[in-house]
Please model this.
Amino acid sequence: MRRELSLPFETRGHRGLISVRVVPNDDPWASGHQLVVPDLDAEAFRGFPICTAGLRYHGQGIEAIMGWIQVINGVTIDLVPNLSGVDPFYSYGYLPTFFDAPANPDHPDGPWRADTILTVVPDVVHSQVVEPIAAFSWGYELRSGRPDLLDVTALAARDWAGHRALLEAGHPTWTFS
Model:
């Protein structure tokens, strides 16, 4: 089982490295799930994945502003529910760390796969043009209500990991270069 991945990248004339780690959630209370699920049944959430992806990057300041876009099962753009949904980003900012801890014990058996893409807006804040830098895939397979973690793997970012049409349809005011 591959739980860690290092992905080198280059953008804005500087090199960087994404360090991805996917581990089973052994303690849903410690991971903070009670903040989003007040009546948390910790045992039902145990074993689902926790994914983090940190960045090391040789650029500084504004050059290090980037974003993460995530697509679930090839059909859903994963957005933070309490934000506007106007932009396609799961997160955006200075050296953004990616974090997700999906737990869906009530879903039917089957795969839950996330394709996660590190991106840049070339002019940082002036346009709605976004370019892919690097991408990886991770997730779990639900079997009899229990998760079996999937390997974390690198994806080809230059074609938006195959999700350009979905992103364009979901965010028509944005250009996905």
Observations:
- The helical segments are 42-45, 164-170.
